[in-house]
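Page 47, continued from p. 46.
Same chain as before, 70 aa.
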Amino acid sequence: KMKAELGGNAKVIATGGLANMIALGYMLKLTNFMDADVIKSAIEKMVPPSKAALIAKNVEAIDLGYNYEG
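Result:
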């Protein structure tokens, strides 16, 4: 349901396999269990160089979820 409510950009990202990252961003906002910047930093450190292009997409998906006003 959240994917449909987020709008066009989220639909594109979610269909690209990043729905989990959108949900993570939203969960971070709701629970404050961890700072979003810590997660983003961890992604940058853990994603192998061969998949570095995925870092920006994952960070964008986290931001979409975090900034969701639902």
